[in-house]
Amino acid sequence: MQASGGKAGKREIARAFDIKGGDRIALKAMLKSLADTGKIARRHRRLIDTSALPPIAAVEVVGLDPDGDLIGVPLEWDETVLGKPPRILIEAGKASSREEMRPPARGERILAKIEPTGDPAWPFKARIVRRLADSGKRVLGIFRTSKGQGARIIPVDKKARHDLRVAPGDENGARDGELVAAEIRRGAGRGPVSAKVRERLGDMEDQRNISLIAIHQHGIPDSFPERVLAEAAALKPFSPAGRTDLRTVPLITIDPPDARDHDDAVWAEPDGDPANPGGVKVIVAIADVAAYVRSGTALDREARIRGNSVYFPDRVVPMLPERISNDLCSLREKEDRPALACFMTFDASGTKKNHRFDRIIMRSAAKLSYQDAQAAIDGRPNAVTDTLLEPVLKPLWQAYRVLMKGRRRREPLELDLPERKLILDAHGLVERVVTPERLDAHKLVEEFMIQANVAAAETLEAKQSPFLYRVHEPPAREKLVALSEFLKTVGLSLPLGQVMRPKHFNRILAAAAGKDYQHVVNEIVLRTQAQAVYSPENKGHFGLTLRRYAHFTSPIRRYADLIVHRGLISALGLGSDGLTAEDIARLADTADLVSGAERRAMAAERETIDRLIAAHLSGQTGSTFRARISGVVGAGLFVTLTESGADGFVPVSTLGREYFVYDQTRHALIGEKSGETFQLGDRVDVRLVETAPVSGGLRFEMVSEGRSGKPASPPRNIRRSRRPR
Question: Which CATH topology does 621-720 take?
Fold first, then answer.
């Protein structure tokens, strides 16, 4: 039965063993006995071995085991005949295509390649082939009850058009306002779509739980298995043996004021070598996570599944337990900590002369915020920075000025797209939205980290050690052509007949600076770029203009950095806790896994910000806001509010009483008769019509008139919009 893949019946068994005549009676009795004891079962005239599964099967993810591994069960399994379904270990990072690398969420259904393991605890393991379409039967939403209308679920997905009815008995104890996971049940004919509550996830009346929507929607693991926590609790203090003692060197941490973990520290001084006049020495010390998180442990497996920490306005979902991220590996002020340090020397022009790595003991001299460090340099020191100004901060800024010479010569991509930050009150509600000022202190730390990352990649390449590169490929040709066509509409040009470099984009950005279209040019240049990923193969980093680049500086929150740390430890003979054969064998899978986790985190963070801002604006329906057009499609305009950074949609029906056509090249909607134009980047006034905090959706209507222009005549790249209603 196992060899036939579930295709064996009584006739096939008899033929295979040449059983004839009266012996068939004995065979029949034997099969009946096996069926009576539950060892085999009959299905569609076939006999199946209940201890086996077919080589390809549909599997539902049901949770995590104590080690943090994904658990699945077969979808096709008759418990009344076969008993309890077998547990299947779903191997994280083992998929048949790059699209399937994201770890499946609980309740998600996959098609998997099944292999027996011979282990009674885990009789089967699975490799993801693809996600199944019927995973769409699962929905995440807010459970609501109302008199006379019964219970319903409001889906969190912005694209959902209707609420889902919940029949009596399908509530699973859910209460009004709770976030629930449900399974869609389609009624007969054209009746309303209903759903059954499968899991209660949290009370959405508490705004502090808004991030739970994104956490569960994207399948982000937000609780650590007991075995992982036990392993973290059992960790012992690091051993100083074999480490260089740098506790007298005044390394300092410079972070955001609300930072909870500190994984990098910096120091600099002028180079005293007469052969290097004007040169500087720099140390970048990074928390030695590899000393605590060893390959193959439960901690390591969990970190690999998570891929990175996820930062929401109201919480952090860490890659590692707090015992590690906020204690053992956090470079706390005045406390001894293990670190992996990069020692670099630069000449007066900002060119790196040499570098080396070593495992050290350090003691942070101070914990500073970016604002405190910058204020001290600008002549406003406080009680802490006053004593650090001359011996520590001024040498750091001197080194920064030297390194910036090298950066300017390198000419990396310099986009001007300020980020928004939400300030929450004690109740988890948005108090205000700010755009943090970009300080030299930020740029200093960023450039020091970039140089340490480059040094790590260079060292590992020289040692021919496998590791994960941070790869950013040049823009695709079709995107460059589209950008060139757009730039012509604002009087700029992009030379397509040469090899593109970031400096070519920088010249365009400089030409647009101060113009009405500055913001839109920055946006479209950003959209032209490829997305950075992790890869075991080097393809360079286009945006930073670097031939080789790795991530080394954040092992507390990025698994890729931990792999680079292990590679350095092994390549340089710095200990026994370096890269293992298993790490190397699954390097390509790990690259895809952590790249997918990064995309997942970015989407979850962005959606949570949208929901929080939508909740913040829910009491301001009817108010008018200044905004900028941030996207254009045939159905309408996407806008971003100037003050809060909130994103919403303006349907084309609010623009006027004529047809509008979509000009794809100009990223604009143009009146067919009047020529009234609404273009990407335009500043407009909009009125808030509707808010949907559950999905993060905002709907506006246009208040401003568009800019004047020529009436649209639809060429091949212009599409007529739907008639306004």
Answer: OB fold (Dihydrolipoamide Acetyltransferase, E2P) (2.40.50)
Contacts of 223 (CB under 8 A, 6+ apart): none
Per-residue model confidence (pLDDT) at position 49: 64
Q: What is the pLDDT of residue 722?
A: 46
DSSP characters for 393-457? IHHHHHHHHHHHHHHHHH-------PPPEEEE-TTS-EEEEE-----HHHHHHHHHHHHHHHHHH
Handedness of CA 486, 488, 491, 496 (dihedral sign): positive
Residue 167 DSSP label: -
Q: What is the pLDDT of residue 96?
A: 45
**φ, ψ for residue 267, nearest 5 deg:** -160, 150
Question: Which positions ≥6 away from 213 have C-beta within 8 Å?
Answer: 140, 156, 179, 204, 607, 608, 611, 694
Angstrom distance (rounded) from CA 308 to CA 328: 18
Instruction: For residues 444 and 259, give the distance between their C-alpha atoms in angstroms, rounded to a whole number.
Output: 18
Instruction: Indicate if the pLDDT at residue 132 is higher than 60.
Output: yes
What integer pLDDT is reported at residue 724 of this predicted model?
Answer: 40
Tell me the average pLDDT across 93-117.
Answer: 65
pLDDT at 97 over 60: no
- Report how far apart the first and last C-alpha atoms of the chain are (Å, whole number): 64
The residue assigned the tokens 């910096």 is 266
Going from N- to C-terminal start, the domains of the chain cover 10-134, 135-205, 226-473+534-607, 477-529, 621-720
For the chain, how many residues are written?
725
Mean pLDDT, the chain, integer: 87
Q: Which long-range contacts (CB under 8 A, 24 or more apart) does 672-676 make?
A: 672/711, 672/712, 672/720, 673/711, 674/711, 675/708, 675/709, 675/710, 675/711, 675/712, 676/705, 676/706, 676/707, 676/708, 676/709
CATH hierarchy code of domain 10-134: 2.40.50.140
Structure tokens at 670: 């143009």
pLDDT at 135 over 80: no
What pTM, to 2 d.p., does this model score?
0.79
Q: Nearest to residue 246, comparing CAs of 286, 190, 277, 298?
A: 286
Which one of 3.30.200.20, 2.40.50.700, 3.40.50.2300, 3.40.50.970 gives the CATH number of domain 135-205?
Answer: 2.40.50.700
Q: How far, in Å, CA of 363 to CA of 400, rounded?
A: 22
Q: What is the predicted pLDDT for the residue at 331?
A: 97
Q: At what angle do helices 440-462 and 370-377 cross, to 10 degrees?
A: 110
Between strands 421-424 and 88-95, the pairing is unpaired
Residue 219 falls in which region: left (phi positive, over 0), alpha (psi -120 to 50) or beta: left
- The structure tokens listed for 384 are 């802490």
More confident: 116 or 164: 164
Q: How far apart are CA 653 and CA 592, in angstroms?
A: 42
DSSP string, 633-657: ETTEEEEEETTT--EEEEEGGGS-S
Query: What pLDDT is attached to residue 78?
Result: 60
**479, pLDDT greater than 50:** yes
Q: What's the token pair of residue 247?
A: 């506790």
